[in-house]
Amino acid sequence: MPEALRLYRCYPRTAGARPGRPGHWSFVPRPQFHGRWDNSDLFDSWYFSRTAVGAIAESFYNKRRWIPEVFLTPAGEPRALAEFRYSGPGLIDLDDAAALVRLGVRPSEVVVQDLGVTQGIARRLFEADGDVRGGLSWWSSQMPSETSALLWSHGGQPPAGLELVGIQALGAEHPAVVEAAARLYREVG
Fold first, then answer.
1. pLDDT digit string, tens, across residues 30-54
2. Which CATH number among 2.60.40, 3.30.499, 1.10.10, 3.90.175 corresponds to the domain 5-188?
3. What's the angle, vertex CA 96, arms to CA 92 and CA 100, rounded to 5?
């Protein structure tokens, strides 16, 4: 049995939010159309990073200066970093040259900012392997040394094999925020 993966995602936490509702770690908006791999008619898209730094980089890359307000929800609550253990079906590795050759996918198709291309790849891979694979992994667009992951699920339910390990409040002083900011050349504070 393969070793469980550690996965991380940032989300706008709301104290007291119920499971599956906005503000809870288990919420994903439905239907999904705008994500790199989304195919809402086939699966729900759960996006993660393999590290806390990667999750923060993917979530906040578009802010030039990471002031304390960046890490607050519109209601003024701290955004959160959730850590998970994933022991479900293996992922299709789109950062593996042999896998790309076998799948007939070019590296440029994985990184292109064209949803028609990337969503088409996800559709094809899900239809071929969705019953035996848990999703996809690829290199982060914002920080290529980090690995991003998509787990697919259905009906708004968390993916099979996903277990919450812990939740941390985010802020400008969080060690993973400091590291992500340094690696992305962002100002903090």
1. 899 999 999 999 999 999 999 999 9
2. 3.90.175
3. 75
